[in-house]
Write a structure and sequence with these properties.
Rossmann fold, 2 domains, 6-stranded mixed β-sheet, 25% strand, globular
Length: 266
Protein backbone atom coordinates (compact mmCIF):
# COMPACT_ATOMS: atom_id res chain seq x y z
CA UNK A 1 0.00 0.00 0.00
CA UNK A 2 1.36 3.41 -0.99
CA UNK A 3 2.06 5.94 1.74
CA UNK A 4 -0.06 9.08 1.89
CA UNK A 5 1.54 12.15 0.36
CA UNK A 6 -1.21 14.44 1.64
CA UNK A 7 -3.85 14.03 4.35
CA UNK A 8 -6.80 16.27 5.17
CA UNK A 9 -8.33 15.82 8.62
CA UNK A 10 -11.55 17.43 9.80
CA UNK A 11 -11.30 20.37 7.38
CA UNK A 12 -13.97 23.03 7.81
CA UNK A 13 -14.44 26.32 5.95
CA UNK A 14 -16.81 29.13 6.90
CA UNK A 15 -17.33 32.86 6.39
CA UNK A 16 -15.75 35.33 8.84
CA UNK A 17 -18.96 36.63 10.36
CA UNK A 18 -19.82 36.85 14.04
CA UNK A 19 -23.33 35.53 13.46
CA UNK A 20 -22.20 32.74 11.18
CA UNK A 21 -22.36 29.23 12.61
CA UNK A 22 -22.77 27.35 9.34
CA UNK A 23 -19.80 25.82 7.55
CA UNK A 24 -19.46 25.56 3.78
CA UNK A 25 -17.01 22.65 4.11
CA UNK A 26 -18.11 20.48 7.02
CA UNK A 27 -15.36 18.27 8.39
CA UNK A 28 -13.73 16.70 5.34
CA UNK A 29 -11.27 13.81 5.67
CA UNK A 30 -9.30 12.90 2.56
CA UNK A 31 -6.00 11.18 1.77
CA UNK A 32 -3.94 11.10 -1.43
CA UNK A 33 -1.56 8.18 -1.82
CA UNK A 34 1.90 8.48 -3.35
CA UNK A 35 2.13 7.81 -7.11
CA UNK A 36 -1.64 7.64 -7.59
CA UNK A 37 -4.41 9.68 -9.20
CA UNK A 38 -7.18 10.64 -6.77
CA UNK A 39 -10.42 12.13 -8.07
CA UNK A 40 -12.77 14.38 -6.10
CA UNK A 41 -16.22 14.52 -7.71
CA UNK A 42 -19.42 16.27 -6.76
CA UNK A 43 -22.05 18.77 -7.83
CA UNK A 44 -21.22 22.44 -8.40
CA UNK A 45 -21.13 24.32 -5.11
CA UNK A 46 -20.34 21.24 -3.02
CA UNK A 47 -17.05 22.74 -1.79
CA UNK A 48 -14.50 20.92 -3.97
CA UNK A 49 -12.57 24.02 -5.07
CA UNK A 50 -12.46 25.34 -1.50
CA UNK A 51 -10.45 22.27 -0.56
CA UNK A 52 -7.99 23.14 -3.32
CA UNK A 53 -7.75 26.72 -2.04
CA UNK A 54 -7.01 25.48 1.48
CA UNK A 55 -4.25 23.15 0.28
CA UNK A 56 -2.57 25.93 -1.70
CA UNK A 57 -3.10 28.60 0.97
CA UNK A 58 -5.15 30.83 -1.33
CA UNK A 59 -8.46 30.84 0.53
CA UNK A 60 -10.42 34.08 0.03
CA UNK A 61 -9.88 36.69 2.76
CA UNK A 62 -13.54 36.57 3.85
CA UNK A 63 -13.26 32.85 4.69
CA UNK A 64 -11.43 30.92 7.40
CA UNK A 65 -10.55 27.26 7.85
CA UNK A 66 -10.23 24.76 10.70
CA UNK A 67 -8.70 21.31 10.83
CA UNK A 68 -5.43 19.92 9.48
CA UNK A 69 -3.84 19.52 6.06
CA UNK A 70 -0.63 17.49 6.25
CA UNK A 71 1.85 17.41 3.38
CA UNK A 72 4.51 14.94 4.49
CA UNK A 73 5.20 16.21 8.04
CA UNK A 74 4.18 19.82 7.36
CA UNK A 75 0.90 21.29 8.63
CA UNK A 76 0.00 23.54 5.73
CA UNK A 77 -2.67 25.56 7.53
CA UNK A 78 -0.11 26.68 10.11
CA UNK A 79 2.58 27.83 7.66
CA UNK A 80 3.42 31.45 6.88
CA UNK A 81 3.16 32.85 3.36
CA UNK A 82 6.94 32.62 3.01
CA UNK A 83 6.94 28.98 4.05
CA UNK A 84 4.06 28.18 1.68
CA UNK A 85 5.95 29.79 -1.19
CA UNK A 86 8.71 27.22 -0.70
CA UNK A 87 6.14 24.45 -1.21
CA UNK A 88 3.98 25.92 -3.99
CA UNK A 89 5.19 24.88 -7.41
CA UNK A 90 8.23 22.94 -6.22
CA UNK A 91 6.35 20.38 -4.11
CA UNK A 92 2.67 21.01 -4.85
CA UNK A 93 1.66 22.32 -8.28
CA UNK A 94 -1.76 23.41 -9.49
CA UNK A 95 -3.58 23.69 -12.81
CA UNK A 96 -6.52 26.07 -12.54
CA UNK A 97 -9.74 25.35 -14.43
CA UNK A 98 -10.13 28.64 -16.33
CA UNK A 99 -7.22 28.52 -18.76
CA UNK A 100 -8.15 31.80 -20.48
CA UNK A 101 -8.07 33.76 -17.21
CA UNK A 102 -5.00 31.95 -15.85
CA UNK A 103 -2.69 32.95 -18.70
CA UNK A 104 -1.44 36.49 -19.35
CA UNK A 105 -2.68 37.48 -22.84
CA UNK A 106 0.17 40.00 -23.27
CA UNK A 107 3.02 37.56 -22.58
CA UNK A 108 4.24 34.86 -24.94
CA UNK A 109 3.67 31.28 -23.84
CA UNK A 110 7.37 30.49 -23.59
CA UNK A 111 7.97 33.43 -21.29
CA UNK A 112 5.13 32.35 -18.98
CA UNK A 113 6.64 28.87 -18.75
CA UNK A 114 10.18 30.19 -18.23
CA UNK A 115 9.06 32.28 -15.23
CA UNK A 116 8.25 29.03 -13.44
CA UNK A 117 11.45 27.32 -14.58
CA UNK A 118 13.54 30.29 -13.43
CA UNK A 119 12.55 29.52 -9.85
CA UNK A 120 13.84 25.94 -10.11
CA UNK A 121 16.66 25.93 -12.71
CA UNK A 122 19.87 27.89 -12.20
CA UNK A 123 21.26 27.69 -15.74
CA UNK A 124 19.50 29.98 -18.20
CA UNK A 125 20.59 27.93 -21.23
CA UNK A 126 18.82 24.85 -19.87
CA UNK A 127 15.44 26.52 -19.48
CA UNK A 128 14.59 26.43 -23.17
CA UNK A 129 15.37 22.72 -23.41
CA UNK A 130 13.43 22.00 -20.23
CA UNK A 131 10.47 24.02 -21.54
CA UNK A 132 10.43 22.01 -24.77
CA UNK A 133 10.59 18.77 -22.77
CA UNK A 134 7.65 19.86 -20.59
CA UNK A 135 5.55 20.76 -23.62
CA UNK A 136 6.27 17.39 -25.19
CA UNK A 137 5.31 15.69 -21.92
CA UNK A 138 1.85 17.28 -22.18
CA UNK A 139 1.55 16.18 -25.82
CA UNK A 140 2.01 19.62 -27.45
CA UNK A 141 3.61 19.27 -30.88
CA UNK A 142 6.06 21.86 -32.22
CA UNK A 143 6.99 23.20 -28.76
CA UNK A 144 9.14 26.03 -30.15
CA UNK A 145 6.22 27.30 -32.19
CA UNK A 146 3.95 27.15 -29.13
CA UNK A 147 6.48 29.10 -27.03
CA UNK A 148 6.73 31.86 -29.65
CA UNK A 149 2.99 32.43 -29.72
CA UNK A 150 0.53 34.19 -27.40
CA UNK A 151 -2.24 32.39 -25.48
CA UNK A 152 -5.00 33.64 -27.80
CA UNK A 153 -3.26 31.85 -30.68
CA UNK A 154 -3.83 28.48 -29.01
CA UNK A 155 -7.01 26.41 -28.88
CA UNK A 156 -8.71 25.73 -25.54
CA UNK A 157 -7.22 22.26 -25.34
CA UNK A 158 -3.73 23.57 -26.11
CA UNK A 159 -4.03 26.26 -23.43
CA UNK A 160 -5.07 23.63 -20.90
CA UNK A 161 -1.99 21.58 -21.80
CA UNK A 162 0.20 24.68 -21.51
CA UNK A 163 -1.20 25.31 -18.03
CA UNK A 164 -0.42 21.70 -17.15
CA UNK A 165 3.18 22.21 -18.32
CA UNK A 166 3.40 25.31 -16.12
CA UNK A 167 1.93 23.32 -13.22
CA UNK A 168 4.61 20.62 -13.47
CA UNK A 169 7.43 23.08 -14.23
CA UNK A 170 8.80 22.81 -10.71
CA UNK A 171 8.66 18.98 -10.81
CA UNK A 172 6.17 18.76 -7.91
CA UNK A 173 5.36 15.55 -6.09
CA UNK A 174 1.66 16.45 -6.07
CA UNK A 175 -0.31 18.13 -8.86
CA UNK A 176 -3.82 19.50 -8.35
CA UNK A 177 -5.93 19.69 -11.52
CA UNK A 178 -9.21 21.61 -11.24
CA UNK A 179 -11.70 20.54 -13.94
CA UNK A 180 -9.06 19.62 -16.57
CA UNK A 181 -11.69 18.64 -19.21
CA UNK A 182 -14.21 21.42 -18.59
CA UNK A 183 -15.87 22.66 -21.79
CA UNK A 184 -14.13 20.11 -24.04
CA UNK A 185 -15.81 17.94 -26.64
CA UNK A 186 -15.51 14.14 -26.54
CA UNK A 187 -12.38 13.99 -28.69
CA UNK A 188 -10.51 16.61 -26.66
CA UNK A 189 -11.65 15.02 -23.39
CA UNK A 190 -10.22 11.66 -24.47
CA UNK A 191 -6.97 13.31 -25.53
CA UNK A 192 -6.72 15.15 -22.20
CA UNK A 193 -7.44 11.95 -20.26
CA UNK A 194 -4.66 10.15 -22.13
CA UNK A 195 -2.27 13.06 -21.54
CA UNK A 196 -2.96 13.11 -17.79
CA UNK A 197 -2.53 9.34 -17.48
CA UNK A 198 0.68 9.28 -19.51
CA UNK A 199 2.06 12.24 -17.54
CA UNK A 200 1.39 10.38 -14.30
CA UNK A 201 3.01 7.18 -15.59
CA UNK A 202 6.06 9.01 -16.94
CA UNK A 203 6.78 11.27 -13.96
CA UNK A 204 5.15 9.37 -11.05
CA UNK A 205 3.51 12.62 -9.97
CA UNK A 206 0.57 12.16 -7.60
CA UNK A 207 -2.55 13.91 -8.88
CA UNK A 208 -5.63 15.28 -7.14
CA UNK A 209 -8.21 15.73 -9.89
CA UNK A 210 -11.27 17.89 -9.18
CA UNK A 211 -13.83 16.96 -11.83
CA UNK A 212 -17.44 16.68 -12.92
CA UNK A 213 -16.32 14.21 -15.59
CA UNK A 214 -17.19 10.83 -14.10
CA UNK A 215 -15.92 8.95 -17.15
CA UNK A 216 -12.53 10.62 -16.68
CA UNK A 217 -12.52 9.75 -12.98
CA UNK A 218 -13.51 6.13 -13.65
CA UNK A 219 -10.97 5.57 -16.41
CA UNK A 220 -7.79 7.01 -14.90
CA UNK A 221 -8.11 7.56 -11.13
CA UNK A 222 -7.12 4.98 -8.54
CA UNK A 223 -9.13 6.45 -5.67
CA UNK A 224 -12.29 8.54 -5.65
CA UNK A 225 -13.99 10.79 -3.11
CA UNK A 226 -17.58 11.94 -3.59
CA UNK A 227 -18.61 15.29 -2.12
CA UNK A 228 -22.03 16.82 -1.52
CA UNK A 229 -23.03 19.93 0.44
CA UNK A 230 -19.63 20.29 2.07
CA UNK A 231 -19.22 16.67 3.13
CA UNK A 232 -17.54 13.53 1.76
CA UNK A 233 -20.41 11.08 1.31
CA UNK A 234 -18.35 8.07 0.21
CA UNK A 235 -14.88 7.12 -0.99
CA UNK A 236 -12.84 4.12 -2.05
CA UNK A 237 -11.01 2.50 -4.94
CA UNK A 238 -12.56 4.10 -8.01
CA UNK A 239 -13.73 1.16 -10.10
CA UNK A 240 -15.00 -0.80 -7.11
CA UNK A 241 -16.77 2.30 -5.81
CA UNK A 242 -18.51 3.04 -9.12
CA UNK A 243 -19.54 -0.56 -9.71
CA UNK A 244 -20.90 -1.32 -6.24
CA UNK A 245 -22.02 2.05 -4.89
CA UNK A 246 -25.26 2.65 -3.05
CA UNK A 247 -24.32 6.28 -2.35
CA UNK A 248 -27.18 8.55 -3.44
CA UNK A 249 -24.89 11.43 -4.46
CA UNK A 250 -22.74 9.29 -6.75
CA UNK A 251 -25.80 7.55 -8.23
CA UNK A 252 -27.37 10.95 -8.98
CA UNK A 253 -24.15 12.14 -10.64
CA UNK A 254 -23.90 8.97 -12.75
CA UNK A 255 -27.54 9.23 -13.86
CA UNK A 256 -27.17 12.94 -14.67
CA UNK A 257 -24.09 12.27 -16.82
CA UNK A 258 -25.89 9.43 -18.64
CA UNK A 259 -28.79 11.77 -19.45
CA UNK A 260 -26.41 14.44 -20.78
CA UNK A 261 -24.57 11.87 -22.90
CA UNK A 262 -27.83 10.56 -24.37
CA UNK A 263 -29.10 14.11 -25.02
CA UNK A 264 -26.03 15.17 -26.99
CA UNK A 265 -25.96 11.84 -28.85
CA UNK A 266 -29.41 12.50 -30.35
Amino acid sequence: MNKNILEIRGLKVAEKRRDNNSFIVKGVDLAIRENTICSLVGKSGSGKSLITACIMGILASNLYSEGEILYRDKKLLELSEEQLNRIRGKHIGIVMQNCSCSLNPLVKNGRQLSIVLKEHLSKKDSRSKQAEKLLRNVKLDNPRSVMNRYPHELSGGMKQRLLTAIGIGGAPELLIMDEPTKGMDVILRNQMADMIYQLHKKTNVSILMITHDLELAYNISHDCYVMNQGRITTHGETKKLFETTNDCTLIDLINAQKMMTEFFAV
